[in-house]
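Figure 2 data, in text form.
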Amino acid sequence: MRLIAASLAAALASSAALAAPASAQDWALDREASSVRATIAVFNTPAEARFTDFDAQITLDPANLAGARIEAVVRTASGAMTTRDYQQAMLSGDGLAPSAHPEARFVSSDVRPVEGGYEAHGVLTIRGVEAPVVLAFTLEIDGARAVAAGGFDVSRSAFGITASSWGASNVGETVAVSLHIEADAR
C-alpha cells in the first residue's frame, strides 16, 4: 500500500507530463477532469489508490520538444483507498509518510516522440528519494484542449516504502501508476 501511495504520487507527477503536450504554450491542468491512480497487489488482489490533490506546470509543443518542461506535484496525504487498513498503511511512516514528506514530485525537460505517443523522461522524488522514471503517454489535442493517458511502473522499495507488518510476500513490489490528464491552453 505504501508503494501504491508512492506510485500515485509519481503518477500525479507524471500526469502533469501527460497534460503538457499540445502547442507552443503552457497548459493549465483541469484537476476535475483528471485522475491519478496507483495499483499494487495486496494478498494477491489488486488494490487501487487515488490521489486528489495534485498540480503541474506544463510547457510543451509537439513541434518543438526541446522546449518541453514538466513539473508535477502530488500531495501525498491526499491518497485514498477503499480499504481502511490499506489506507492507513499507505499514509503511515512506512508508506508515503506525508507528515515528513508532504509532496511527491516529477520533473522532466526531456519529452520524446515514440511510436504511438510520447515518453517523458524525468526524475520522480518520493520520500526524499530520487529515481529516473519514463512516463509513456498518448495525447489528443482538440483546439485548446489536450487529453492524455498513460502510466509507468515503479518499485516501492526503491523509494524506501516497506511492506509493513504484512510481509513482503503479501505486498507486491511493483506499483502500476495510471493517469488520465486533461488540460487547457493558457
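Caption note: The two ends are 36 Å apart (CA to CA).
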